[in-house]
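User: Please predict structures.

Assistant: First:
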Amino acid sequence: ALAAELLEARPTLRIVLSGTPGERPIVAQIRALVPATLRDRVIDGAGAYSLAELIALLDRCAVLVSNDTGVMHLARARGTPLVALLGPENHRRWGPYTLGPAAATSLRYVVPCAPCARFDCDVLYCLRSLEPPEVRAEVEALLDGGRPAHDAALVQLRRRHRQRSWRDLADAGFELPLVSVAVLAGADGGAADGPDAIVAAIGAQAYPRLELLVADTGDAAHAVVENARRSGRFERVVLSRAGSAAWASPIADAIGTYVTPIWSSATAAAWPTDKLDRDVAALVRDPSTAFTSLLPAPFTDVPGAERQLGPEGRTYRHALLAIAVKSVDGDDPDGRGAPHERLAAAAERLLREHPLAVVDGLNVPPHDAEPASRGPSGVGSPLAPSPTRALEPAVAR
């Protein structure tokens, strides 16, 4: 869409799609999306240029549009006007240099799960938040401004970075993970401690996609479920019928990607309103917490992780908690005999082998800590800006 709009608006513009030899299928697919009447002005440059030829190409470009690649850094050093499309990385560590010979803009949406170290991501909330109209506006401004003279003063990078919460993403149409909050029956088989207080605390959470599951312990539980349904806060409210263990039935009925078991109003009341926000962010951010089936795969050991297990108020991968429930379900037909302790023990056994399967985002170190100072950005670049003035084309990548 961006390429077609620019080509239609600027009849003298040409676009070069650069890339490695392995990216030829992607580049060909992008070029094929351009209308046939404009396609002869889109050059497939995947695998076509040596490093020296790529630098020479950048020296003649009016604008480079790039994600965070080596080409982006080359353009910043050579004085090619730049629009950098940044994703999940820490922009202070990996983004364009702050100072450069030409105007440059970085666009980024800082989503809750960023920064991260994932190379494969199915959701890409960060990059999919970037829309062609905002990118085009930046490109048009740089095209109109032209390239600076080779002896021009260094130019400050213009950062257009916006925060986007889980609520913002939901409002923009993104499908977020569903979190199942399971209000369990008490250890004695009766009603959980203060279920109304628990539901009120859960409803105050900022995270937008929640379902509520309540163990059926009688009239009190029925009233809690009806009140929750009337509130409209939850996507799904389920009264879980007691099975062989009443405390386990809400977990078994959960359909969310993540499950948070809880049975204490004191615990729920102590939650900050961003508690589940942070839990989901930590689980989405770190690929080592991922499961591909009902059985967790082994990942890097984290010393002491099993000692941090609650399990109350922790947010689990659904698969892990389902395994823990299955391992103790049926041990106590009456749902008595300290079921929460048995659930904790079962989950803890799994965590000894797979310690990253459970998270409490409030105890996860922040992933956006600033890197150690690297000295002045943009100073001492080995590549001097070219004296060549750019005509058009622009390079898009």
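Second:
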Amino acid sequence: MHSHNAHNHFIRNLISFKIYRYNCTKFLFLKNQYRFLIPSLVWLIFCTVLFTLPASAFPTEKWYTKIPLFDKWVHIGLISILSFLFCWGIYKGKNIAENNKRNFILTGIICLAYGIMIEFIQRYFIPNRSFDTGDIMADGVGALTGVIYSFKRYIKK
């Protein structure tokens, strides 16, 4: 009777080890897959810092006001890079190719939502900053630009 219990204990431990090993292997795969999102997350932090700076953090000598729609170009540039970096991370993460189209479009939508959220944060929480629908339109153009570039570069026809 004692050897039967020892045998059951051995089988349970073996099964538990195999499940543990499978989960660890699966976790390492995910970890490797998601490492490609690190550049986009770093860029997201950079953008968030820039977008949430108070107006007093900008230079008093406003040389950039001589550039037409400078603020809008900044939004287009930052958000298009953000959108592209997330699409690049999705592409490099070895996702199923058919999912890339859907994921790229979703990335553009999320980047636009991020831009809208930033405008509300600027309006309600950042001193001397305001809500600007023009910035939201620029964010939309940036998100679309990043997604279109990613489609052209990574989606096979």
